[in-house]
Specification:
alpha+beta, Double Stranded RNA Binding Domain, 23% strand, 70 residues
């Protein structure tokens, strides 16, 4: 997996970053940044925090409150 800093077509916020898998598929995309340095700094922050990452299953909170009957 790798991070890429990319220039967008947005004239006011021309930079963003994405995570690309080994097969070349984009798996995540950031929002846009005004400065390239800001995008790079966020990539570095995300890379530092990955070992401490956790998974939150928010689908439990989105379950319907009713039960379907046959």
């Amino acid at each position: 997996m790798r991070f890429q800093v990319v220039r967008s077509n947005n004239p006011t916020q021309p930079f963003f970053w994405r995570i690309v898998s080994e097969s070349g598929q984009t798996v995540a995309v950031s929002g846009n940044y005004v400065a390239k340095a800001s995008a790079v700094a966020m990539v570095e922050a995300v890379m530092r925090s990955i070992p401490r990452a956790t998974l939150e299953d928010l689908t439990v909170l989105q379950e319907p409150s009713y039960r379907e009957t046959a």
